[in-house]
Amino acid sequence: MEGYQHLGLDERRDIYRLIGTGRTVKQVADALRRHPSTIYREIKRNRHFDEEPLFRGYFPTAAQTMASNRRVRGGKIARQPELAAYIADRLLAAWSPEQIAGYLRRHRGQREAVCHETIYQYVYGAEGRHHKLWRHLPVARRSRRQRYGRKPRGLHIPVANTIGARPQEIADRSSFGHWEGDLLIFRREYGKANLTSLVERCSRFTFLTRNPSRHSAGVMAGIDRHLRDMPPPLRRSITFDRGTEFAAFATLRNRLGITSYFCLPSAPWQKGGVENCNGRIRRFLPSDTDLALLSDREIQAVADRLNSTPRKCLGYRTPHEVLGEQIALLKAG
Predict the structure, then answer these.
(1) Which domain does 80 fall in, by range?
(2) CA within 20 to 30 Å of 289's CA: 74, 172, 195, 267, which one?
(3) What mean pLDDT do residues 140-153 have?
(4) The pTM is what?
(5) Strand 194-200's sheet: what is its strand order?
């Protein structure tokens, strides 16, 4: 079976001639031994639009030119300098690629319409990198991440420890003692040191602990060190993502009686409390922070600042107040 061949100028002339004689698309397809969808697509994609009705329609030479232009290296944006300049201007005005694409589709017509993925490819392509357009994206990353998230990294999770097995009281924050944990990673040139962030779901109380590496035993030891002094009712469960740094989760049950749950693959949003907290922490400890230059007291000062800040979700009480009240109730009982 021969491979698919693009339509050429001769076939486009035949399409023009046959349509002019009143043939249907199916009859044209049969005459050219093409699938009807090929002819439908050809007429739709390469139809010439003009302000003058007399010059609107399907014309073989114009169709050939439009089809050839699509195969030029560089993509639609790079081939249209005015469109490229407009997109760069809108990015500079803090529009997202999705907003730009939607506005073009609504106000500029089909000729200048591009999807947001095309804009991202242009931004991270040769010309976009030359002009450093990535700096104007909502999340200004120098390199683009994979579109569909990270692949599962081989950590075996028993069914009893998947997030689907987590009791409803944890999901709706109706009881205390349920935590979420994550790792904050910093620039590779500063070594392997990182921070574990722990957030209690009800009170939003935060612990930060320094780790010398991402080895699971050390990460779990830091969590054990912070939660060990909590009353048992306030250390009942903890939710992680599937990073291998949490592979030794069984040690928390053996030492402290804490049950660990894990998000689905590539779904860190399922532990949204700690993800939100990480964003707050990054205001004070951005990714280019060298942890070796910070003392434990300075890291604790960041946690104290978070815990002493009133939160709308807590009725403008602080996490320290909310967790402190719960500890007092447990001691009184």
Answers:
(1) 75-136
(2) 267
(3) 64
(4) 0.56
(5) 206-211, 194-200, 178-184, 237-240, 259-262
Residues 246, 207 share a domain:
yes
Q: For the chain, what is the domain count? A: 3
Single out the residue of 326, 328, 307 nearest to residue 318, CA to CA: 307
Other beta carbons within 10 Å of 121? 18
DSSP 234: G
In contact, 289 and 186? CB cutoff 8 Å: yes
Nearby residues of 227 by Cβ (< 8 Å), 6 or more positions away = 179, 198, 207, 235, 252, 256, 258
CB 322 within 8 A of CB 203: yes
- Of 5-9, 38-42, 181-185, 291-295, least confident by mean pLDDT is 5-9
% pLDDT > 90, the chain: 62
What angle in degrees, to the nearest 10, is found between the helix axes of 97-107 and 81-92? 130
Q: How many angstroms separate the Cα of 333 from the Cα of each of 77, 136, 329? A: 68, 55, 6
Single-letter residue type at 194: N
Q: Is residue 152 part of a domain?
A: no
